[in-house]
Amino acid sequence: MTPILYEMPGQEPLARSLSKLLGWQQGQAIIRQFPDGETYIRILDDVRDKKAVILSQLHHPDETTLPMLLMADTLRDLGAEKVGLIAPYLAYMRQDKRFNEGEGVSSHYYSRLISAHLDWLLTVDPHLHRIHDLSEVYSIPSLSLTAVAPMAGWIRENVDRPLIIGPDSESEQWAARVAELAGAPCEVLTKQRLGDRDVKISLPHVDRYLDYTPVLVDDMISTGRTMIQAAGHLTSAGMRAPICVVVHGLFSPGARQELQDSQLTVVTCNSIPDASNKIDLAPLLGEGLACLSGI
Questions:
Q1: How many CA atoms lie within 13 A of 17 on its CB side?
Q2: Which residues are in the Phosphoribosyltransferase domain (predicted)?
Q3: pLDDT tens across 14-51, in order?
Q4: Residues 136, 107: contact at Cβ < 8 Å?
Q5: Chain Cα centroid distance, residue 183
Q6: In the chain, which ranges are continuous DSSP H helix?
Q7: pLDDT greater than 90 at residue 75
Q8: 73 alpha-carbon distance from chain centroid
Q9: SS3 of 237, please?
Q10: Residue 102 CB partners (closer than 8 Å, separation 6+)
Q11: CATH number of 148-270
């Protein structure tokens, strides 16, 4: 018996794409807020002894996590055999150690919360640093996919003579994989972060790439400052206007306007719903679901 897929608000396009690809039933549910902000959930399907899957982007996690957990517990309370989570963007990954005395290690606390309510987790390009595998913090079966292949496919089909550029040394291996799959050369910038919103970068040697289209790739874009500075340096060096291709478009307050003012084209995957979504993750997620046992 195939699972029933329930999408949280904002994930309707990806849910339609995924359910069509897999032949899954799209579940029917009512999700709304009471006047005081509390979440109301009603499941309109019979889920007893069936497998249920929740599709939820966890951007703005303090707003999106609790409704998702209420959905999971409602499904389980109504008799669902298993409840899995597809979270294309997984939140609370940056605070993975105690940097200063008195700080909480929120990535560990968040993973325990998710693990207590779900049976398995599927995500895409989580922001891993000191955590090398999700199994280090999640106690449920967890699979992390990478969007390098769909990103490379989009670049290969839409960009003339691309030069793949990683924004910092940490992205070198990741950018190199995108470049290899796109059949393109690769360069990496060096980045020095001076604060939450202040970044200094230096350019690679680009003289031999002046007739290429620079494509800045990264796992996420938040303030956009790194991309804007990199684009400015690349164009001042005589290169074509760059394109930014990223997995997760977080877009912190003011970022969109700054990117628009810089006339920078940004293309994102549909892990977080946005007008910049051009790369569909449904095929990638479908492959990942086939790898997870117990679906």
A1: 15
A2: 144-271
A3: 999 999 999 999 999 999 999 999 999 999 999 999 99
A4: no
A5: 24
A6: 12-22, 61-77, 106-117, 148-158, 172-182, 225-236, 255-261, 282-291
A7: yes
A8: 24
A9: coil
A10: none
A11: 3.40.50.2020
What SS3 class is residue 125? coil
Evaluate whether 71 touches 6 at the Cβ level (below 8 Å): yes
Which one is the CATH code of 4-145+281-291: 3.40.50.2300, 3.40.50.10540, 2.40.50.100, 3.40.50.2020?
3.40.50.2020
Amino acid at 255: A
Distance CA 134, CA 107 (A): 10
Dihedral of the CA atoms 221, 70, 116, 82 (nearest 10)? -100
Q: Quickly tell me which residue has 């939450």 as its tokens.
A: 196
Which of 59, 24, 54 lies closest to 271 in space, CA to CA? 59
Eight-class DSSP state of 295? -
Q: Is-contact 39 66, C-beta < 8 A?
A: yes
Alpha-carbon torsion (218, 224, 226, 228), positive or negative: positive
Q: What is the spatial distance between Cα 25 and Cα 114, in angstroms, rounded to a whole number?
A: 24
Asked if residue 245 lies in contact with residue 278, where contact means CB atoms within 8 angstroms, the answer is: no
Structural tokens at position 283: 């095929």
Largest CA distance in the chain: 64
Q: What percent of the chain has pLDDT over 90?
A: 69
| CA 246, 130, 288, 69 torsion-angle sign | negative
Q: Which two tokens stand for residue 278?
A: 């051009």
pTM for the full predicted model:
0.91
Rounded to 5, what percent of the chain is helix, strand, coil? Answer: 35, 25, 40
Burial of 120 (0-12, 13-18, 19+ CB in 10 A): buried
Distance CA 67, CA 240 (A): 44
C-alpha to C-alpha distance for 161 and 158, rounded to whole angstroms: 10
